[in-house]
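so the lab meeting is tmrw and i was supposed to have these ready like two days ago... anyway. pasting both below. for each one the top line is the aa sequence and the line under it is the structure tokens. i havent really looked at them closely yet so no promises
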Amino acid sequence: MRSIQENGELKIESKIEEIVEPLREKIRDLEKSFTQKYPPVKFLSEKDRKRILVSLYTLLVFVMLRNFLFSLRENSHIIKFTLLKDTIQ
């Protein structure tokens, strides 16, 4: 004969299975509904790829130029002091 504790554990396990089984079915259904992992990709011609590459390089150059100009603006007091010092001497 099974003990009372074993019967209680079996009841708990069966209740858990009753709750979990519909969730497993929903997961299986969702996995089946996603047939494609990624959307289809449109392959570009070489000309279009070069155009995109040039645009990215242009963007990079402008960002670097902007950063350089901002750094000049932040350090402008140092540049002004150096120029003033040179003119006084």
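ok protien two:
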Amino acid sequence: IIEKIQIITMYKEEELLGEGGYSQVYAGERRSTSTPVAIKHISKKDVQFARVNCQGNVYDEILEVFLLEQAAGRLCDGSFENPAVIGLMDVFNLGTEIIIVMERSPDTVDGQNYLFQLKYIPEEQVKVIFKQIINAALLMHKNGVFHRDLKLKNILVKRTKELLRSESSTLDVGIL
């Protein structure tokens, strides 16, 4: 179990990005590199664990961490790399809560806010975004993970200067 002060020395927590049924996600920054991150707080009472058997190694893992890494194809040999899944950077056990630190691109917005800002997305752009989401979901499925909470809030859209061309990534595995 790590002390909160250790996390504070590594990461600067900023504004709230969003809240789910059991977690809060904050924007943040890795102090040593000024890298933008997303910092997810989950109450320990809401954390689920899974017994993982990966190439003969059996261990208990936080279910959300396991699913995130497995969906991205970073856990077991034979998995398919899925660059659309946000990268996991750190996991901290604070006794009363689990903190999960993930990559965050500063020029992204969740799908709901993206749609709210634009009011209208041209059909051709919607096709591109949907194709990227479907391809990401198919790779997750090939890796043995089915995303049960695909919704606008769980999709990140990378914005360009003109806000017309975009790439999308899934935010997290959103297990309920």
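from a quick look at the 2nd one: The longest helix spans residues 123-142. Strands lie at 11-19, 23-30, 35-43, 49-54, 57-62, 88-93, 97-103, 108-110, 155-159, 166-170. will dig more after coffe
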